[in-house]
Amino acid sequence: MPIIRVTHARMRPFAVRRRRLGNSAPINTGGIYRNLRDMTTTTTINLPHATQHPQQDKHDAPEILFKNPIVQQLWKARQLARMEENSSHPTDVMSSGRAPSESRVQVVYDFKTNSYLLNAYRNPWGQMRLGKLMEDLDALAGNIAYLHGGRNHPKHPMIVTASVDRIRLRERPQIHDNQLLSGQVTWTGTSSMEIKMTCTTVDAKQPWLECHCTFVTLDPETKKPTAIPPVLPQTPKEHADYAAGEQRAAIKKMRRNQQLNELAPSIALSLAQALLDEGRPLLTLPSLADPNAILIESTKLSNAMIAQPQVQNLHNRIFGGFLMRRAFELAFANAYVFGGARPLFLEVDEVSFWAPVDVGDLVVFNSRVIYTDYGYLSDYYEGMTRFAKRPALLPLVHIEVEAWVTEPEKATAKLSNQFYFSFAIADKQQVRRVLPANLDEAMRMALRIGRDDEQRQT
Asked: What global pTM score does this model have?
């Protein structure tokens, strides 16, 4: 049982010039302060084994010790895999390809017996802290991407997160149950790969969380995309996952082409114009406007941070999972403030990574309600737990968070990440409708509504 001793050294006496303040008489303290000064105090703290932080291993990079225990375990495994790769002979994987099972990674959360782990993942309401799980998803995906696209690759490419396409909850997990987080590569393009991850309660048949994300491999010298081994599905389930990933990749490619050509679907344009017309009275005739409506501008909530070295990844950039957790927690707070009741998280609709964040950067997170609507929890949760007897429509709040790397010295800022989250306000029957004040806001709303509708149909 380790013991930490905190010792306060005896201080040297120093002269004090005494003076009386006002007419107060001196207070006789009986020499207690002199006795305290002359003492050497030793505090002993016993750390039970169950709450002991994992010990440092000779293979650990110093910064790994600042990560949560699951991220630490994953990054250590990736470092060991790299060491084994450096000591082995390279193999020709570019032409032969790899099966999905070769990139499979899984992590067990032993919440039942590990109180340190349990307390690290418990939120104030006795439920699982989902923001920390998002950190783990990013770290797990990094390991999977390395096993498929980086291991024994002749160019030793950089592997970076391009996007998180969706994180969907099917039901609420119980914090005291052991959990299994796992994933593997399901689809590959020339230089990109899609990774599917799930989290399942141990001994349960169906996962309660499903996540799809996309990674890209870059040449370490030119920083341009470089080819990766193809994935070779083996089972009917793997073939189905591959076809679904191929379809998602085609949709994303179509959207990129529309953005490059500054084109937008005609449906989105007409919806944006209708939303703008509906929001105009809030600007021009506020006293006569709909009292149940509010402008997007009035729903903003922001915070800022300096990117610290303790949250850098193995490429010495700020860990994407950490940014996702910070964005989620801001989005949760915004939905809480806007809805007037504690929100129920439904899903991450999309995360885009536009530029890296370096240690020392000033990062400003801006959140706003992008739109509101109404829906049934059964459309999201298959196991509705305490809401099973409440089939009524509930207000849904959709939050956009942007992370901006800000340089005050140059008076500039660049967009680093965009995050989209959906919440339900289960204890309210109604929330205010959000409307745009300009065409840019109207187009953002219309495009987001369209993309969310596409996701619900898949």
From this structure: 0.81
